[in-house]
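Module 6 notes. Inverse folding takes a fixed backbone as the condition and produces residue identities as the prediction. Think of it as a translation problem where the source language is geometry and the target language is the twenty amino acids. Below is one complete input and output pair. Work through it position by position during the lab.
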């Protein structure tokens, strides 16, 4: 029980420290690339997110990757990203 409690506290502390501390950030867009049936490789996802950041003039992304593992084709990814513009 002590191990699980310690692990939970460590995970909570890590997640709180990983959050951005910038203020005056506005959500500009929500971006979704890929889904269960159409996945992309990581380099394509990075290029698409970078292009969208440049197009919108934003400077911060919070991306959540989902890895899809195909037995023969290998890994592929889909992502949901929140794009922010911070001052």
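Target side of the pair, the amino acids:
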């Amino acid at each position: 029980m002590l191990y699980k409690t310690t692990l939970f506290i460590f995970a909570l502390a890590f997640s709180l420290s990983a959050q951005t501390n910038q203020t005056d950030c506005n959500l500009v867009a929500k971006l979704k690339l890929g889904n269960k049936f159409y996945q992309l490789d990581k380099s394509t996802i990075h290029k698409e997110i970078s292009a969208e950041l440049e197009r919108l003039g934003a400077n911060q992304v919070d991306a959540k990757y989902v890895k899809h593992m195909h037995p023969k084709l290998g890994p592929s990814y889909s992502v949901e990203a929140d794009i922010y513009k911070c001052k």
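Reference fact for the lab report: Residues 2-18 form the longest helix (17 residues).
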